[in-house]
């Protein structure tokens, strides 16, 4: 079973890139972030024609998350619990092939400090609480998406330049490490503990050409899934396609049960 995550940075504007990637790589499940489309503007028919079912949580101009799957999708949750007044479309959860899939787009948080950074940390705390509840159920869970966190200096090109950025501030990294410490496995780091891995390259200053990237798209696996992990990687070449997102798709492969 191949599961992928991809921050598309506008699902309609990047639709040709998304469809090409789906055709070439054929993942079984895909989590998308930054749809930047209201609910009624999601390109459902194009996704169906590509061979996928879909559920999505859209929002005009900003945010938006979706789960695509070749098999049946049972939606479990839309929106992150803990703050009914938070209307941002940043989390969607479903049961696919016996695995709970949580697709998230964690807030960027810049400029920091400030209200946006406060919101990022508050959202993170709600996410940690929800993730703890999922772990306690002892079921297979994959939490994947754009976490907007570089967990360590290994995950960022020239870390000294990012010390005051919301994605790399100590409070952000501490929250991520606290989340993982409850029992989650960072899939790519388990597979490649010492390698340089990036999932995002800015559009500016030839970042992709220089490989001046960040690793901010992550897979966290519950123990029930971690033992099934076979492979994983980043489809870095997709970032070089014309009119591509500034993120590349990230994927893992799990053994069948």
TrEMBL record:
PANTHER family, alphabetized: EXODEOXYRIBONUCLEASE III
Matching entries from InterPro entries are given as: AP_endonuc_1, AP_endonuclease_F1_BS, AP_endonuclease_F1_CS, Endo/exonu/phosph_ase_sf, Endo/exonuclease/phosphatase, ExoIII-like
Segments spanning the bilayer are: none
**UniProt source species:** Mucilaginibacter corticis
Coiled-coil stretches noted in the UniProt entry, renumbered to this chain: none
**Site label Transition state stabilizer, positions:** 148
Q: What is this protein called?
A: Exodeoxyribonuclease III
Among the GO biological process terms of this entry, one is: DNA repair
Where Mg(2+) binds, per the record, is at 7, 34, 146, 148, 246-247
Site (Interaction with DNA substrate) residue list: 247
GO function term, MF aspect, one: endonuclease activity
Q: Which gene encodes it?
A: xth
